[in-house]
Amino acid sequence: MSQNNWNEQKIEQLLSQMPKPHDTRTKDDVFKRLQLDYNTSEKPLKKRKYWVPPTVGVAAMITLTLLGVTYINNSSSNKEIATQNYDLEEAKIKTDESVDENTANSKIA
Fold first, then answer.
1. What are the angstrom distances between the C-alpha of 106 and each of 65, 97, 101?
2. Reported pTM
């Protein structure tokens, strides 16, 4: 840090020694210059790009469609697997019963 010790009195003294600002232009000249600068600095407005929201909507619909199809296919394949397992269990029970009957019949004879 600098070793300058500034106090309020010193700052006020330096400010009072500064020359007073003065302008020889009239108010009309200043106003015309400001209007000229404002009119030339205006840039034409760019057209906004309105394609982003529809694109996001389409992407969301595609994603939801793919997820829905996957879910439906997965649930239908699970039902098929459950049905096949049920059929296999019934077949196994029937074969066990027939084996038991054959064993019982052979013991009787």
1. 61, 14, 8
2. 0.33
Q: Inform me whether the pLDDT recorded for 109 exceeds 60.
A: no
pLDDT band at 17; cut points 50, 70, 90: very high
What is the C-alpha separation between 101 and 91, in angstroms, rounded? 15
Spatial distance between the Cα atoms of 101 and 107, rounded to a whole number of angstroms: 10
Residue 54, helix vs strand vs coil = helix
Q: b/e string for 58-78 if b means 16 or more Cβ within 10 A? A: eeeeeeeeeeeeeeeeeeeee
Residue 79 CA to residue 87 CA, distance in Å, equals 12
The dihedral through the CA atoms of 55, 56, 62, 65 has a sign that is negative
Radius of gyration of the chain (CA): 46
CA atoms of 90 and 84, how far apart (whole Å): 10
- Residue linked to tokens 């030339």: 40
The rounded distance, in Å, linking the Cα atoms of 65 and 71 is 10
